[in-house]
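We modelled the chain as a single entity of 192 amino acids. Its sequence is:
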Amino acid sequence: MDISLSACALVVLSPVFLVIWAIIRLESPGPGMFIQKRWGRNQRQIDVYKFRTMRTDEGDASGVAQTVANDPRLTRIGKLLRKSNLDELPQLLNVLLGSMSLVGPRCHPIGMLAGGVQYEELVPRYHDRHLVRPGLTGIAQVKGLRGPTVDAARAVQRIEADLFYVQNYSVWLDIKLIVKTVSMELRGGTGS
């Protein structure tokens, strides 16, 4: 399912990719996409592809410095891409290549903070979420548990949702989450 759906989506969306890439390049100097190290299955580091949403000279390649409201590092197109989640479309390449899945726990940057501490310190079972491939969407996303992780309780809820997915995985659950995600995105997006 991952390979066939991501391949079809990449073909259908290739004109969108080109337009987004061109707009990014026209608005600010630097590449249209960037690669970031994140946690993958079995705690292996993977390269995750995303459209660039920040000015090249102000971005945080590690991803540890999270985006905040009215973040001055964001470009105009970057704000729109994040709000609509279009900045994550290149992750379809990760799905096609096998480092990610369409559905699963969201892959976090290495060293991500939650409630001001390393996620591993806040949630002792944090790495149990890495028993499966990370996904473009998952339970945490459809429950609205996205965005900054400064609130420790909310950050823990996100991981609990991921662990529920790991323990209750099924193809039917994946299908329901994909349908719910598409529906939410068509109604305005859940990005920040």
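As a brief sanity check on the tokenised model: DSSP finds seven helices and six strands in the chain. The CA atoms of residues 21 and 122 lie 37 Å apart.
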